[in-house]
Amino acid sequence: MDGNHSHSDEQSNDVARRDGRWRDSHGEAEATARGHTVLAKLTTHLVDTYSKCGLPRHEQPKTARRLLTKNSQVVANNGWDNCDNNIVLRVRDLLDVHTRSGVAKTFVVLDLLGQGTFGQVFRCQDVATKAVVAIKIIRNHPSYYKQALVEVQVSQLVQSASNVVIHCDLKPENILLTGQDKLHSMAHPSQVVPSIKLVDFGSACYENETVFSYIQSRFYRSPEVLLGLPYCGAIDMWSLGCVR
Description:
Kinase-like_dom_sf; 8 strands; Transferase(Phosphotransferase), domain 1; two-stranded antiparallel sheet; elongated; Ser/Thr_kinase_AS; 5 helices; Protein kinase domain-containing protein; alpha+beta; nucleotide-binding; Phosphorylase Kinase, domain 1; ATP-binding
């Protein structure tokens, strides 16, 4: 009787040990599954999340890429800007841009077109449409930012006849010829000539708000500006004459 009871206890203990091991392994499996679920939620579409932050980002290159910004030592703006408050970019860097309408676009940087007092102009390509565009990035400083807002406003109103805008910096670099919207020569109707586009309204102002005195590039500067006299839209005609 006692022998049977002892044998029954051993069987019960063995079953209990197996049950305990099953519960331990089952609990570990559940914990692992929960961990995988959390990991998946935290990392799925992570690149898309980063891209929505709207900051320029550097790709991780396999080989060194050409620097486009002349002063390439970053000292400000969390490692993005140099001592001149210009963003430091390389070939094939990506720019995430949010338009005024709220549309997010990504551009790949191809080359540097030029730089001046207000910032840098880069030749870029829209990743989605493959269209090649010029993007002007203003120096990261309040005064240049305010002037950039004026440039945007002037650019929107430049074709309005009711607003007399002075460009203030007409020179060959700011006069572009485009193959789009071709015109026909009046002297030779069969001859097609390119249309003219004016760019860089960073120094522009309204004719009734001539607040700047140091304007126009040296070789295209009008007598009024040189002598510090009041000026109007005629200074653009002087510059245009110098271009011809």
